[in-house]
Design brief:
The complex is a heterotrimer of chains A (about 300), B (about 325) and C (about 260).
Chain A: H1 3-35, H2 42-59, H3 64-93, H4 97-123, E1 128-129, E2 140-142, E3 145-147, H5 149-171, H6 173-183, H7 185-190, H8 195-221, E4 223-224, H9 228-243, H10 248-269, H11 274-288
Antiparallel strand pairs in A: 1-4, 2-3
Chain B: H1 2-6, H2 11-32, H3 40-57, H4 62-84, H5 89-122, H6 146-164, H7 167-177, H8 179-184, H9 189-215, H10 225-238, H11 244-259, H12 267-281, H13 289-304
Chain C: E1 2-11, E2 14-24, E3 29-33, H1 40-48, E4 55-60, E5 63-64, H2 70-76, E6 78-80, H3 93-100, H4 109-114, H5 117-136, H6 152-165, E7 170-174, H7 182-197, E8 201-205, H8 209-215, E9 218-223, E10 226-231, H9 233-237, H10 240-246
Parallel strand pairs in C: 3-8, 3-9, 6-7, 7-8
Antiparallel strand pairs in C: 1-2, 1-4, 4-5, 9-10
Classes of the chains: A mainly alpha (about 300), B mainly alpha (about 325), C alpha/beta (about 260).
Amino acid sequence: MDSGQQFLQQLINALSLGTIYSLFALGYALVFSVLGVLNLAHSAIFTAGAVIGLLLMRYVNASAPVAFLGAMIGAGLLGIILEWIAFRPLRKRGAPRISQLISSIGAAILIVNGFQLLFQSLFGRTEEYFPRGIVAEQPILIGSLSIQPIRLIILVVSLALMLLLQFLVRRTKVGMAMRSVAFNQRTSSLLGVNVNWVFMLTFFLAGALGGAGGLLYGLSFSRVTPFMGQDIALIGLTAIVLGGMGSIQGAVLGGFLVAIFQTFSIALGGSSYRDAFVFIILFLILLVRPQGLLGQPEQNRA
Amino acid sequence: MNFLGSIGISEAVIQFMLVNAILGLSIYVTLYTGMFTLANAGFMAIGAYTGVLLTQQLDWPLWAGVIGGMVAAGVIAVPIGLPVLRLRDIYLAIATIGFGEVVRIVLLNFDQIVSSLIELTTGERTRFALVNGARGIRGIPKLTETWHLVFFVLLLAYVLYRLHRSRLGRAMAAIRQDELAAANMGIDVVYVKNVVFVLGAMIAGAAGVFSGHLTRIITPDAYGFSQAVDILAFAVLGGTSTLVGPIVGGMVLGALPEVLRFMQQYRGLFNGLVLLLFIVYLPGGLINPAGWSSLWRQARRERSSQGETLPEAS
Amino acid sequence: MLELKNVSRNFGGLQALSNVNMVVPKGRVVGLIGPNGAGKTTLINNISGLDHPNSGAILFEGVDLCKAPPHVVTRAGIARTYQNIRLFGEMTVLENLLIGQHGRGRATVFEALAYLPRYRREEAALRERARTLLERFQLERFAHMRASALPYGDQRRLEMARALATGPKLLLLDEPTAGMNPAETSALGEQVLRLRDEGMTILVIEHDMSLIRQVCDEIYVLNFGQIIAHGDPDEISHNPLVIEAYLGEEDDGAA
């Protein structure tokens, strides 16, 4: 393989990883833009998507599309429950947003440990593999490039979901309600927007996207562990910081950029520095341009 | 001692609890100043590795190792704090989580980094082995005694008690309540924040040295995000309105799994539940009379208004 | 004592202050009035270091403070109060006054930790000065109460006491009588005059024209970020530009 083709191969890997990061980061960004809080339990929802998909395939013999849909709905519902338990009471009390960050960390630990216990009782270990043959495994050859089918599936499905979200937010009444709440909560509720309902919907969408990302991520390694969210939690944070907290386009851009950095830093310097590289980017962005690439600076109140 | 032993609290558990108390105080000073940082697990790691290397490689006594670990953590905190403390709440939290991960990754690859540096400068290919990557350092002598820990916690409590009654201590509280107004009072906010950040790092560093000489094994993965969250949980459980809070919080969270044996496999679940429930229902933590009384009032109000639907607040 | 030279500040496209020139002479009470949104609070923020001008100079006793951070401004001798009260609500009234003296203390942390004599003497002196201020503003009985629990008018007075605790030569008052009744307002006016008689220089932003007439030696009028008039209270109330600026404002005070 010459270097041009190698570059292309790497690029395809980076893109398929990037779509997963973007899907995941979108969940953070949606919640942050509408509620102004950071949901650190989003990584647990990501895991939940993979776990639900796995269980559906394992115990109900669900086909891949059905399991995928189930995972999205299940993860979305988990998002709603989370909003209800970890965010709503604090919001009503007017607690600082750091409190909501802490409660979401608590919820994340709770969910991850719950899955760990579940895995131990179901499988007797803390990892489990997808049934064989769920996704075609024969690599597709284009010229001398060999692409695994799952990579293409990830790309297509994720892009479709992102377009769908974009449509929902930009073109529908529901999306308008979300944007108006994001812009100004008080005014929106005076204008008759049901703010609590919008919050619920936001968490559902964020959860569904995160869950979809989780299942796709699991499928690409054909493995699920209760801790898989931890690998991606900080990557997702880096993605939204990079793109601009609360910016939906920014989250997508950030996800791709992080994946590209990662893939090419592996190609250049070996895998052990992959994560360090990501965090150095996170650091630099926070220090130089905390509003991210596409975000607006936060107003300094005086 | 016999009673404690019968409920599962051996001397080893007490030592563990006291280390937690120190860790609780390390995050307390920053929270008291209104800074939410999750960097203390990273500083604990820096302290642990420095202290252990000093006692192992140079045969220094424990107390010298503790001071060495504190100094190392404090020195590293300066260049981290100066840029990072310009950030506020969520951004500060994210940046400090990132710092913790960088510390972990650097420790994992430390030997390799040094080897390649040596190769670059001298051209010699050597295999440098000091911290052993993911395997960590093993066979550390158990130098930490219970009285060391008791002494250190008491010393720390005294220092913080006096600090609260000093200009610096009042400035810390003022910055927490209103940063801009504090600056208008003549308080150099940037300076105070950095001093406190370094102080927290040094306390965490000391805890790292003590715990390294208790567990006798240190690995980079022991100081990751979950350790950072554990430290946070000590402060949240105990509360940060007085310095007794984090001490109690750390000790309780250290003791509970031992006392309630059946809980051991649910320990993670329990930690999560503590964070969630306390932040939601008792945000001031255990040691916080005002919080308890408001919780009590709220419970009574709800009992008296049972059946009525509460108006939805938006 | 304080001199603003061509001070301009814009936020994005919005010109909040343009070429403001102003002089606050020593020992005088200067008023700054103007309709809502004229840039009065922006001006105070720029003087007190919370915000910095894009161009121009802010000279205090000949030193340019235009880029100085707030604590440096305070230590140079400028103190302020806020339009929306910003006390340290979780602290007691006395502690608020101790915080105000932060820049005046000299004892180091180590002296405090070791409980050395200099720290103890200094601490006693700070408390003594706080007591004097409490007396002056009739707040003694609240000394150990949480600041947030004080009645509104007392919170305003405490804020002024806290500003004085920093030991200023120039005091900036941002709408000190907002939310006060006429009796409280005139009592506050008395305090301001008493301070002036003791040699304090004061710049007061106000909506309430009765206070302005009661205390001010001279007045600047700010509109759309520009000084449109300057003079003594009589001149200002008859200045056609000022009357025009206030027309359309429901505020009836200016004419």
